[in-house]
Design a protein that fits this description.
Blueprint lengths: L9 H18 L7 H5 L1 H4 L5 H20 L26 H15 L4 H16 L3 H5 L12 E5 L5 E5 L2 H13 L9 E2 L2 E2 L2 H14 L9 H14 L4 H8 L4 H4 L1 H17 L10
Antiparallel strand pairs: 1-2, 3-4
Length: 282
Amino acid sequence: MLAAERGAAANTLAAYRRDLEGAQALLGSLEDAGRADLATLANKWADLAPATVARKSSALRQFYGFLVDEGLRADDPSPGLPQPRPRRKLPKVLSHDEVERLLRQAEEEAETGQALSIRMLALIELLYGSGLRASELVALPRAAVPRDAPFLTIRGKGSQERMVPVSARAVQALARWLDVVEPGSNFLFPSRGKHLTRVRLYQLLKSLAGRAGLDPSRVSPHVLRHAFATHLLEGGADLRVLQTLLGHADIATTQIYTHVDSARLVALVNARHPLAGRDGSG
């Protein structure tokens, strides 16, 4: 149902499977579990983060909704599931200077002419310059590269397509990569007969961050996506435009970046305002 009716991506399907199998390991047959059985999960999941519990509960809630819709159960026991209210964390964001250091390191390494270094530059230019998700980036087909327009056609979550702009820097980096990439693959970033994996992209970016003198724990593909969004918002981008660029179905997801920007402004006032150094005692 998730694949056929909702168009869920393979990673989403795998995540649902893991959550359902994990619950089954704790409860036994999920099809026969009652409300009281599901209520016991609150204690069994007590050590998990609220966001993780919320995700697992959501998977089970949808599973029981499916059973009821298909006539496989007469009742829905999901009200017994724990319902935490996770506090949404502000995303990690790199400063303009930190992103510049990362890009400078990639550019210097690409000047060696080594194919993998040229690939790394193209990857990071697209992550930060277009705000792509890691899964979208690694699976890009070669056909997505623009010929006469500075846009990429992206197939995102739920197989939804969107157009994202490609910076002049990224266009140049892509052109350099296409000159050296191995022929015969339909993917822009081929690897071992398929395409580069998200895990490998994560590892490559961490390694680049270390060579650039940055803390690798603070750098990931998603952090660069957050930096793309935050820096655009700082520059005056409209929230609706940002929603379109990021491929968010709900603008509420995009609004998290307004909180990031607000936090930055408060820090700026505290650090730079003429009265910041006074303690109010005078």
